[in-house]
Amino acid sequence: MYELTVRRHFDAAHHLWGYPGRCTRLHGHSWLVEVAVAGEELDEYGMLIDFHELQEMVESVVKDLDHQYLNDLPPFHQPGRETNPTAENIARYIYRRLKPNFRPGLKLRRVIVWESPSARASYSEE
Ligand SMILES: [Zn+2]
Questions:
Q1: Tens digits of per-residue pLDDT, 50-76?
Q2: CB 6 within 8 A of CB 55
């Protein structure tokens, strides 16, 4: 089994609804996103997937989050229902946006979102 990982980063603001701490105040992070994919078969170039192609796939999702106030975006703000844009929920959102783009034989292993250099959350559906 081969596994590849790419990284992209974005900057965005958020706050946490109803959280009993300082994260309830508006603040920002430089978020780092890692996407890991896996598969058994390489193509004729010896690649599981072209790193550039995978980075473009991740970028197409991350660009919608970059320099945004995350609490205002549809994934986290529906009428009558607020979802805290935590690292966990951002990882799930990115995972579910990416998953339909994968060809058979290429597995989306996990999406990891780093909120700071020492704190990360991971999401997978395996
Ligand atoms: Zn935060």
A1: 999 999 999 999 999 999 999 999 999
A2: yes
Q: How far is the CA of 104 from the centre of ligand 1 (A)?
A: 36
Q: Look up residue 23 and give its two tokens.
A: 């994260």
As a whole number, mean pLDDT of residues 108-126 equals 96
The class (CATH top level) of 2-123 is alpha beta
Active site annotation includes 3: no
Q: Is the pLDDT of residue 126 over 80?
A: no
Q: What is the DSSP letter of 88?
A: H
User: In 3D, which of 96, 84, 90 has the Cα closest to residue 112?
Assistant: 90
Ligand 1 centroid – CA 53 distance (Å): 30
Q: Compute, in angstroms, the gap from residue 27 CA to the centroid of ligand 1.
A: 6
pTM (whole model) above 0.70: yes
Helix (H) or strand (E) holding 38: strand 27-39
